[in-house]
Design brief:
The complex is a heterodimer. Chain A is 38% helix and 20% strand. Chain A is of the alpha+beta class. Chain B has eight helices and nine strands.
Chain lengths: 317, 287
């Protein structure tokens, strides 16, 4: 569905940062080594079965065992191990504590994203989207609220589990601005396959501007009857019980924070583009789009009421 | 083969009866048509030669454009017609025959009777509009099965009926004739396949399928709004606008402007993309 957007599923061998790049290099190296060794074995088998007698004798000799059976694997495997560990050492460098930190919590079936300050306090809450400055490492505190999920943005890093009761740290970095698709990579029930994520890398100055804008008090206008009706319906039909909307009395914590819904790139946890139509469709019948998700279909609202709610959410940016 | 003979015999009886009663009292040329070798390979397998017939209606009927073939339909003539034994051939297809088009064609579309108002009850319930083929009794050359004799090109269908509600009945009959037969070999409009592919990409980009089930889009299959499966067969958009590519393009881009009061919101499509989306919905088929 999203191949028109960010590539879905995201390509795994297209690194956009150093942590993904080392993994990609290692993948190719192991693949080449594997092909090489398999080719040697196939050739040796052919000689052993159909080859000329003098080659057979040489292959079965003691020298061949010493070289091909002990020296070659010992040298090559040791070299490969040392090289691989060196290459990926950056993945497990200790966290210095100076990096920007973001807490990402896996929930069934979406990602809660909380930006932390240097004291570890939550300064901004968002969902299904990670904004990060390009060229800087970002440490993600991966948690889970219910079952084991797995956080994977293939462009930016390898995957890491989100385990209930634990905090796993994952360092990601994007070297170029762009949008990178991600997903939950551990089966977590029901609509697991529709649990997506988008990482957005900004140039560093733009990132600071973005953060300042998001931290400013949200602007909400109810200057048309439709928007006023949308706000009223949001508060009265039950949306506000699960969703928080900054600057309004809606303060539910069960579902994604909708304070800046108008700026969100996706609807339904990284799976649909965000526009008036998809937002209306999601509110009205989310169960047909993402069967089993925890938001009920608001099919008791009329289409104009659903659209009013979507319109009110859409202008919150 | 047996079935064909029996059928033809029944027809002949019915035709004689009608002539005796004077059931057909008026002949009006209400539809013209052309005949050509069928492009539907299924019908080349039957005993009789398959032909395609295009009807051109001079008047506007719902779902059918005037003077435009709604669908090309393969038919085939009876063995008698092919061998020249049948004289003036007027074979029939009854609704029960369905897709078995090894006869001529005849439309029964309602329980109202047209023509033989003094006929028996069974007649009344049966065949109502009849489309006869004139000049098709020439021998068919089995050695050249793919060619249509010159006498059969571009001839007119003579339609015999004999009651006041002629025009209405015939139009309805033709509508049934053209709409009810399977398979539909041709779509109403023809679009560039690249436009259709661009339309699919645009549909996926803006997420139309969040509300609509759309053929060819695997996910999502939204149920909030109407399914767009078979949209080419829909006569009007949103219950009001004629379903033409231009109207559809305007509607998918800005539905409230195209039809005031529409509950479909404005979608972020460019005018070119909206034309591609219309091409996809009308031209992609239901595969």
């Amino acid at each position: 569905m999203l191949d028109a957007l960010w590539g879905w599923p995201p390509p795994v061998l297209d690194p956009a940062g150093p942590y993904a790049a080392s993994v990609t290099t290692l993948t190719w190296a192991l693949l080449v080594m594997g092909v090489l060794v398999t080719a040697i074995v196939v050739v040796a088998l052919y000689i052993a079965i159909k080859g000329p007698a003098h080659l057979k004798a040489r292959l079965g000799g003691e020298r061949a065992v010493w070289i091909g059976g002990i020296a070659f694997p010992g040298v090559v495997l040791t070299g490969l191990l040392i090289w691989g560990l060196t290459l990926t050492a950056s993945l497990s460098h200790p966290i210095t504590g100076k990096e920007m930190r973001v807490r990402v919590t896996g929930e069934m079936w979406w990602f809660r994203v909380q930006y932390l300050d240097s004291q570890g306090r939550v300064v901004l809450e968002d969902a299904n989207e990670l904004h990060l400055p390009a060229g800087q490492p970002v440490v993600l505190e991966l948690r889970s609220a219910d079952v084991i999920h797995n956080f994977w943005v293939p462009h930016l890093s390898g995957k890491k589990d989100m385990v209930p009761g634990r905090v796993n740290l994952l360092r990601v970095q994007a070297d170029r601005p762009g949008q990178f698709g991600g997903l939950c990579a551990e089966y977590c029930g029901g609509p697991h396959a529709l649990m997506g994520f988008v990482a957005v890398a900004h140039p560093p100055q733009e990132y600071q501007a973005w953060l300042a804008k998001r931290r400013a008090p949200p602007r909400s206008l109810e200057n048309t009857p439709q928007l006023a009706e949308g706000r009223k319906l949001f508060m009265e039909t039950g949306c506000a019980a699960c969703h928080r909307v900054g600057g309004s009395e809606a303060n539910g914590l069960a579902g994604p924070d909708l304070t800046n819904m108008g700026e969100r790139l996706t609807v339904g946890a990284g799976i649909l583009p965000n526009n008036r139509g998809t937002l209306t469709g999601w509110i009205g019948d989310s169960q047909s789009i993402k069967p089993g998700n925890r938001m009920p279909s608001y099919d008791r609202l009329s289409a104009s009421q659903t659209e009013a709610i979507a319109a009110w959410l859409e202008q919150r940016r | 083969m047996v079935k064909l003979y029996r059928h033809a015999a029944g027809l002949a009886r019915r035709r004689r009866r009608r002539h005796r009663k004077g059931g057909i009292v008026a002949t009006q040329l209400l539809a013209s048509g052309t005949i050509h070798p069928s492009r539907d390979p299924r019908h080349l397998l039957v005993a009789a030669q398959a032909l395609g017939v295009e009807l051109h209606l001079p008047c506007e009927v719902a779902r059918i454009q005037p003077r435009q073939a709604r669908r090309k339909m393969p038919v085939s003539f009876t063995v008698q017609a092919m061998t020249g034994d049948a004289g003036r051939s007027c074979p029939c297809i009854s609704p029960a025959q369905g897709d078995d088009l090894t006869g001529g064609f005849e439309c029964a579309f309602a329980r109202r009777q047209v023509g033989a108002s003094r006929g028996r009850q069974s007649d009344r319930d049966k065949c109502l509009a009849q489309i006869g083929v004139r000049e098709c009794h020439r021998a068919w050359e089995p050695s050249r099965p793919a060619q249509v004799p010159d006498q059969m090109r571009g001839f007119a269908f003579r339609i015999g009926v004999g009651a006041p509600r002629v025009a209405c009945a015939l139009a309805l009959g033709c509508a049934v004739f053209t709409a009810a037969c399977k398979p539909p070999p041709e779509a109403r409009y023809h679009f560039d396949s690249t436009a259709i592919e661009r339309g699919r990409i645009a549909i996926e980009r803006v997420g139309c399928a969040a509300c609509h089930t759309i053929p060819g889009i695997d996910w999502p299959k939204g149920r909030m709004a109407r399914s767009l499966v078979g949209f080419d067969d829909v006569g009007v958009i949103a219950g009001s606008l004629p379903n033409t590519p231009a109207n559809l393009a305007a509607f998918v881009r800005n539905a409230p402007a195209a039809k005031p009061g529409s509950t479909m919101p404005v979608m972020p499509l460019t005018p070119a993309e909206s034309r591609d989306v219309a091409a996809y919905l009308l031209g992609a088929g239901d595969a």
